[in-house]
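Entry type: protein chain
Record version: 2
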Amino acid sequence: MTGNSDMPATLRLSNAEQEALRHKCVEINKLLVKKGRQPLRDSELAHYILDNATKLVQVSSDGELKIEAE
């Protein structure tokens, strides 16, 4: 789907999802800083994950969602 859609401009995350994103961001930022790179904001990581992982989501033979690397 491209262009203007009916998708809301905001996405509400559960507390557990927010915490998982924050922990992953801290982990990644430690590595980025060690490499002399600029740290990411939580929202930047969320956008990166959405942009790159959505194309990897598949439905298994039993109807379960799964993420498969290309």
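Comment: The longest strand covers residues 57-59.
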